Amino acid sequence: MGLLLDYEAQHFSWKVDGRVAIVTINRPDRKNPLTFESYAELRDTFEALRFEQDIKTVMLTGAGGNFCAGGDVFEIIEPLTKMAMPELLNFTRMTGSVVKAMRACPQPVVAAIDGVCVGAGACLAMGSDLRFGTLGSKVAFLFVRVGLAGCDMGACAILPRIIGQGRAADLLYSGRVMKGEEAERWGFFNRLCESESLHEEALTMARDLAGGPTFAHAMTKRMMHAEWDMSVDEAIEAEAQAQAVCMETKDFSRAFEAFAAKRVPEFEGD
After folding, report:
1. Domain spanning 13-210 has what CATH number?
2. In the chain, N or C terminus with fewer CB closer than 10 Å?
């Protein structure tokens, strides 16, 4: 029995649907801003997912028609203006560790994004593996608009790899809003959905991934991250080794047997 199956989150909503964990940032009256405590709990939860065998994918979303309004102005931004450098560095390292934990957990993370998705909320979306959005969504890396650099929570490294260097520079220097259609056209969103169907479409994707060869999915996620720092030749060799490991799994044998029998394989992640 996985330790997180009966987990009771304190600073966001946590629900397990079969083999999918649904994380909902749940302060809808204020468009789901983050606090010091919710940052820390998100970090700890994603770190714990590294050791969770029964949860295969994660869906990340927000309550009340918005994704996340970033750091709470009065509970985070105002206290930060009164902190000294050691405290500030502890905070920025903690926020970055949330994205690091999201990238390090083996489960694919599917973000369902509607309404406001700005600041740290945009970075949580960026740190996810897949992003489903709506026409009414508003994504903004707005740090420059509060006198900060665009280099927050890995944005200068990750965002250019998603949408390209020039487009990332546009968003990070300006802090402007990227609406749903543009986000999909630029490749930030994998899919545009109607607001009414967003949750179900993202959950369907998460369930589909959870029903697939989850050991292989974890390997894909690991290699996509690791190969950022490799030459093409190094990446080809690393992928050869990774794929050879996947060929030893029972899921690989199951897939062949199902193909030979002309039926759909049933993967178990081993």
Report:
1. 3.90.226.10
2. N
pLDDT of residue 73: 86
- CA–CA distance, 30 with 10 (Å, rounded to integer): 17
Q: Pairing mode, if any, of strands 138-140 and 178-179?
A: antiparallel
Q: 48 is written with which tokens?
A: 């714990």
Cα angle 12, 93, 144 (rounded to 5 degrees) comes to: 85
Burial of 61 (0-12, 13-18, 19+ CB in 10 A): buried
pTM score? 0.95
List strand residue ranges (DSSP E) for the chain, in order: 13-17, 20-25, 57-62, 109-112, 116-118, 130-134, 138-140, 178-179, 191-193
**Domain ranges, ordered by start, for the chain:** 13-210, 214-260
Tell me the average confidence (pLDDT) per consecutive run of 10 residues in the chain, 270 residues long. Answer: 81 96 96 95 97 96 97 89 94 97 98 98 98 98 94 97 98 98 98 98 98 95 94 95 94 91 90
Residues 6 or more apart whose CB falls under 8 angstroms from that of 222 comprise 106, 242
Cβ contacts of 78 within 8 Å, gap of 6 or more = none
Angle between helices 120-127 and 155-163 (to 10 degrees): 60
